[in-house]
Amino acid sequence: MPWQDKNILGGGEYFLEVTVYQNQVEKALKVLKRQMTKEGLLKELKRRRFYEKPSVKKKRKQKEAKKKRKAALKRRRSFAM
């Protein structure tokens, strides 16, 4: 995710911008939420809400890696057929 490198490593900031047209605030909020979901910000905010012990963090990362490997294997199998 492009924003992770900036925030974690360099301390930079990432801005999402949504323009509100004709007082359509609900529509603008929908667009903002979609952008945040696409960038992975909502997932990251939920994950960082509370402190995560290193052992739990390690297990979570292993689980995510396993899920990615499984998905990649599934893609390769469907591509080969």
Automatic annotation (TrEMBL):
Segments of this protein annotated with the region Disordered: 52-81
Cellular-component GO terms for this entry: ribonucleoprotein complex; ribosome
GO MF annotation terms: structural constituent of ribosome
One Pfam match: Ribosomal_S21
Keywords: Ribonucleoprotein, Ribosomal protein
InterPro entries: Ribosomal_bS21, Ribosomal_bS21_sf
Example GO biological process: translation
Endpoints of the signal sequence: none
Family: Belongs to the bacterial ribosomal protein bS21 family.
Name this polypeptide is given: SSU ribosomal protein S21p
Organism name: hydrothermal vent metagenome
